[in-house]
Write a structure and sequence with these properties.
The complex is a heterotrimer of chains A (about 290), B (about 280) and C (about 325). Chain A is mainly alpha-helical. Helices cover about 80% and strands about 0% of the residues of chain A. Chain A has 2 domains: about 40 residues; about 230 residues, MetI-like fold. The chains are: A mainly alpha (about 290), B mainly alpha (about 280), C alpha+beta (about 325).
Chain lengths: ~290, ~280, ~325
């Protein structure tokens, strides 16, 4: 479909807007006002408050909070955690989506349900289970102590808990996408003599790249922002096992409100970037599936 | 459309094997450890932890506040979805994008921000205090925080259903003499309520387990404003692993039951849509 | 290259798609697999391609057993029903794909690939569209890209799955003629699946009529049309009238085509029967008549409009009808 045709479609009101025009203008205005009021109260206000509080101590306080070496360590740790958990879950997501979207096998729906499990688990419990596994009193506790390996109250534990929390995101994104695209192009590639890897690299990956990108955006946002699970496994050791959200908590609890919000504003900015990226990718994906 | 054949495409064994391995190592084994630890507790200890007055108060607060938040989100989420789908107004796209903010914003940031807003000298607290309403460090504050968290769930579940509704049905109702409210109640709402219930259930499930956004505003006073996730954390900090495990097990079982119920709801919703779509 | 299919069975769960199917394909011929939806014709095509595995039976190419060979090793060119063009590659890259994925040892140099792709695009009359994306092409153009892509790797056999199914009638007819010309030029053994009997009869050297997983008849278009082996073949390849009768004490059904009926006002030689005209529909140069026979059977006739005028036929008229050609199928002979 040409972009001209697409533009034509977009300029004509959709069915739901046509239906909406049936409501009397006064009702419409009232509902819009009510909805916007709710949105402003619950969405806009908190966002504005983050930045207002962040700068409430003046620019110098803000700057110092962000350039503080402990904060820098927290940022570094957050980046490391993301750098490990995002690719790991992305690879899993692609593998699981391939098996689920392209083949029929017994137990498929069970597998799909199991993949969704981490969504149903509270963040605190997500951290607890790793404490029970690798903590001092955990299943592997004695073995770990004997070998001098620290998982809980150390970086590996944080990575594990975060990876658990973000586990389903990529698979949930790719499975419906690949099911919708169908397997014919890949069959065609095989029939033309491509090997498995050639088919994957040249046909599958390009077709799912937008879904992949979208999944990475979601994975990253959640991995960097996770609080509850990380709080349980981290031990809160300043400069060592504090991610940015934990650092924010510490500053807040020490009544360094402006500093806390200053660091929090970085996370808020990340959230805004995530929203924009999410929007842009959704739009591109919609465009591609329409064509 | 899609034809999925087993014989020709490569990589089945590799991808399925890897997926199951990764799933087991990262998800299934850690989760099962929780159940095994719980099972190894003597029954009286388990019961004592799970049924202590403090735990019961926590269940009540978590459950009650999550339910209230889900109800609030059902009403306002439907309103938002309605307005975003059916009306055109300046800034509509921006608001639509912002609905996802609670998804994207780290829970700790949400937590401290809501607390600051609702504290006595916060922007909202200043308005509420003269009215005698205290939000911070009360169940009300907890409910408001949980409403923030659950907002996208209802909106994003109802929006696609609203968008797919055929306007012809409403036009037919109007041509038969129905007023707008009647049309809404008799034609639209019946089509919407499965999605509404599913979205509310998702918001409820999320709120139950929520920690970061609530732990700051609740004040965490035992028996009064302590939510279940916090109770678990407190027990952990006191090295009461048994107690933490027991309560966590109760929570997990409730969450799984909820997950199954939501899946069933979604299946019902899909069937209804399929039936509606098949009508000429 | 010749193809031999022997005793093929294929099941999908409880459903049997092919029952004991055997077929011989001559080198260089254009063969049609014709049948209704669900008859198993596409399954047979995919089995020959290696996109499915048979549950029983064997397939060989030029006498060599190929049943266990993967689709990659069979060197077949497969054109999918919905083209399956790689949506993220240009037309050029689509056609070049089969050449580019060859193992290094066999892969031709890039200039040779480029030359071959352009040669093929010329062949399918799409020169100049090399840089376009599939979404920018019409259905007929996509079809030809799919064909060029399949031909690029010099397959030994060309397999087309309902190649013109998704196109509108005019484009379909043009492409039909074009495909025949192409086949005559290239001489590759080709099989195509269709449910359109007109297409099969017009295009193919031989037609394989498939129904419910079995081959009902194999033969040249004229043969399957004029000397159908079973009632199904008769009814599927054209419009059919049926009359029940007894021949030498055996129950039989007689089939004849509406355009094979001679209509007259007076008695006729041959197997004539009396009938009353129930309805007359004029369609330009021809006319369709609905006749009711003496025993109440409904018979369709397709006659020149001229004839209707000459006999002044109208509803209620009493006529005699005699089929010029007909086929007798004995009920007890159906196996």
């Amino acid at each position: 479909m040409t972009t001209a045709a697409l533009n034509e479609i977009q300029s004509h009101p959709s069915g739901s807007v046509r239906a909406g025009l049936q409501d009397p203008p006064l009702v419409r205005a009232a509902l819009v006002a009510l909805a916007l009021g709710f949105a402003a109260l619950f969405l806009l206000l908190p966002l504005a408050a983050v930045f207002a509080e962040a700068f409430s101590g003046g620019l110098s306080v803000y700057w110092n909070a962000i350039r503080d070496p402990i904060a820098a360590k927290a940022i570094e740790l957050t980046l490391i955690v993301a750098a490990v958990s995002v690719p790991a879950n992305a690879i899993f997501g692609v593998a699981a989506a391939w098996a689920i979207a392209r083949f029929e096998f017994r137990g498929k729906s069970l597998l799909v349900t199991l993949i969704d499990l981490p969504f149903a688990v509270s963040p605190v419990i997500s951290g607890l289970i790793f404490v029970l596994l690798f903590g001092a009193q955990g299943v592997f506790g004695l073995w770990l102590v004997a070998h001098g390996v620290k998982i809980i109250f150390a970086v590996p534990g944080i990575v594990l808990a975060t990876t658990f929390i973000t586990f389903p995101f990529m698979a949930r994104e790719l499975i419906p996408l690949m099911q919708e695209q169908g397997s014919e192009e890949e069959e065609a590639a095989i029939s033309l003599g491509a090997s498995g890897w050639q088919m994957f690299r040249r046909v599958t990956l390009p077709n799912i790249r937008l879904g992949l990108l979208y999944g990475v955006v979601l994975l990253n946002a959640r991995a960097m922002g996770e609080f509850g699970a990380v709080s349980v496994v981290s031990g809160h050791i300043r400069g060592l096992t504090n991610t940015v959200p934990l650092h924010v908590e510490i500053l807040y609890n020490e009544y360094q409100s402006a500093a806390a919000f200053a660091v929090a504003s970085l996370l808020a900015l990340l959230a805004l970037v995530t929203l924009v990226a999410k929007r842009a990718l959704e739009w591109r994906i919609r465009q591609e599936t329409r064509a | 459309m899609a034809s999925n054949r087993n014989s020709v495409l490569p990589g089945f064994g590799l991808t399925l094997g890897f997926s199951i391995l990764y799933l087991s190592l990262l998800v299934l084994i850690p989760l099962s450890v929780l159940f095994f630890r719980s099972a190894s507790l003597p029954l009286e200890d388990f019961a004592a932890a799970v049924l202590s007055p403090r735990a019961l108060a926590a269940y009540e607060l978590s459950f009650g506040a999550s339910l209230a938040a889900a109800a609030l989100n059902a009403v306002f989420g439907l309103l938002l979805a309605w307005v975003l789908t059916r009306y055109r107004f300046p800034g509509r796209d921006v608001v639509d994008a912002f609905v996802d903010l609670p998804f994207a914003l780290p829970t700790a940031v949400a937590g401290i921000t809501l607390t600051t807003l609702l504290a006595k000298n916060g922007w909202l607290g200043q308005i509420l205090e003269p009215l005698g309403i205290q939000a911070a460090y009360t169940p009300l504050g907890v409910t408001l925080a949980l409403t923030f968290i659950g907002l996208p769930f209802v909106v994003r579940t109802v929006q696609p259903v609203l968008e797919d509704l055929e306007s012809e049905a409403e036009e037919a109702a109007a041509s038969l003499g129905a007023g707008r409210l009647q049309t809404f109640l008799r034609v639209l709402f019946p089509a919407l309520w499965p999605a509404l219930v599913t979205g509310s259930a998702l918001a409820f499930a999320r709120a139950l387990g929520e920690y970061g956004s609530v732990v700051f505003i609740s004040g965490n006073m035992p028996l009064r404003t302590e939510i279940v996730p916090l109770l678990i954390v407190t027990k952990l900090e006191q090295y009461d692993y048994a107690g933490a495990t027991a309560i966590a097990t109760v929570m997990l079982v409730a969450s799984f039951a909820l997950l199954l119920a939501i899946n069933a709801l979604q299946a019902v919703g899909r069937k209804r849509l399929a039936g509606a779509g098949a009508a000429p | 290259m010749s193809i031999e299919v022997r005793g093929i069975w294929k099941h999908f769960g409880d459903f049997t798609a092919l029952r004991d199917v055997s077929l011989h394909v001559e080198p260089g011929e254009l063969l049609a697999l014709l049948g209704p939806s669900g008859s198993g014709k596409t399954t047979l095509l995919r089995l020959i391609a290696g996109l499915e595995r048979p549950d029983a039976g064997a397939i060989s190419f030029d006498g060599e057993d190929a049943t266990e060979r993967s689709v990659r090793d069979r060197r077949v060119g497969f054109v999918f029903q919905h083209y399956a063009l790689f949506r993220h590659m240009t037309v050029f890259e689509n056609v070049a794909f089969g050449l580019r994925v060859q193992p290094r040892a066999q892969r031709p140099a890039e200039e040779r690939i480029r030359a071959r792709v352009h040669e093929l695009l010329d062949l399918v009359q799409l020169e100049g569209l090399a840089r376009r994306m599939p979404t920018q092409l019409s259905g007929g153009q996509r079809q030809r890209v799919a064909l060029a892509r399949a031909l690029a790797v010099q397959p030994r056999v060309l397999l087309l799955d309902e190649p013109f199914g998704a196109l509108d009638a005019r484009v379909r007819r043009e492409l039909r003629r074009w495909l025949r010309k192409l086949h005559d030029e290239l001489g590759i053994t080709s099989l195509f699946v269709t449910h359109d009997q007109e297409e099969a009869l017009e295009l193919a050297d031989r037609v394989v009529v498939v129904n419910e997983g079995r081959i009902e008849q194999v033969g040249a278009p004229d043969e399957v049309y004029r000397r159908p082996a079973t009632p199904f073949v008769f009814g599927f390849l054209g419009e059919a009238n049926w009359l029940a009768t007894t021949v030498d004490g055996r129950k039989a059904r007689v089939g004849f085509r509406p355009d094979d009926l001679e209509i007259s006002l007076g008695p006729l030689d041959g197997h004539a029967f009396a009938a009353r005209v129930r309805r007359v529909q004029s369609l330009g140069a021809r006319a369709k008549l609905e006749l009711v026979s003496a025993v109440g059977a409904l018979v369709q006739a397709d006659v020149p409009a001229e004839r209707v005028r000459m006999l002044a036929l109208s509803p209620g008229a009493e006529v005699f009808a005699a089929p010029r050609e007909m086929r007798v199928f004995f009920d007890d002979a159906s196996a």
